[in-house]
Amino acid sequence: MNTPFWTPELGTWKLVLTPWKAIGIFGAVMFASRWFVQVYYSRIAGRPVTPPIFWIMSVAGSLLLLSYFFFSAKQDIVGIINNLFPCMIAVYNLVLELRYQKKLAAEKAITDAAAAAKTTPTAASSRISNRMTSPVPANEALSAK
Length: 145
Hints:
Blueprint: E1 9-10, E2 13-14, H1 19-45, H2 52-71, H3 77-119, H4 123-133, H5 138-143
Antiparallel strand pairs: 1-2
Helix pairs in contact: 1-2, 2-3
């Protein structure tokens, strides 16, 4: 995958594009574009926010860049180290976000269940309340003896 597939010349400058360089460029673009996503979501919210897609793009961009630095002809240890730590931090933050979303969903289910229990009477409480709200008139109670 280190064989060039595109080599345009721009005057004295020559670009050599291999499949691994394409992967590296795509990873760099993804890693950098996560900031545009963050700005977009912050603008909508009216305050600084970091959406989960930010961390997903961080992990994906870091993994693509790691694969480029590890498998390309360069095999640059500086690039590997430079992208390994942000990848670990992004994975950690993504796990925290997923745990938080799961906790919110569980809390919502509990509050929904509690609200439903307050509005929907059980069968036993419904029978008891029917007896209490519709008592037998006193003259019928006496005639039953």
